[in-house]
Request: fold
Amino acid sequence: MKQTAKTIITVLLAVLTAGTAYGQNKNNMDDKALVVFFSHAGENYSVGNIEEGNTKIVADYISEITGADQFEIVAEKNYDMPYMDLIKVAQDEAKAGELPAYKGDVDVAPYDIIFIGGPIWWGTYPQVMFTFFKDHDLSGKTVIPFTTHEGSGLASTVRDVKNAWPKATVKDGFAIYGHEVRSGRAKVEKWLKGLGW
Reply:
């Protein structure tokens, strides 16, 4: 009888501990989330000419799963050009530390969680995203990087996000191949589930 009681107590403690750990990983239901992203349609490596950019597809998955609002960073500069030309432009912008202008804006104040996404251009996010970084203070917020790529993974994006907002809580990032995004919703779901959604 004593052994049975001991077993029941052990099981209950295990369940309570697991529940607490899970609860710590869950996001507060009152937290407001925003997806900020830059996406490039047109000619892309590996997927050819596309009408909807790879990163936008991932951003849409995130919004559908989490209920997050969106702000798309749309550059005033025209990047509609052959892929090889775009690589040269991206390289020149990165070397010069250029901060291209973008259209519109968003008030980040009401949001607790900010997803930051873009393709990898020359080892990190496109330079126009760094313009957004300069314009907005995400201190005290939870920032979650994600990228689309064709072999670079997250590259230096996590480090760059931490450098931009040292007082933000930066979560594990997510990277997905651009050629996989159209059939990759399950991968996005798995990643978000690990973050508590």
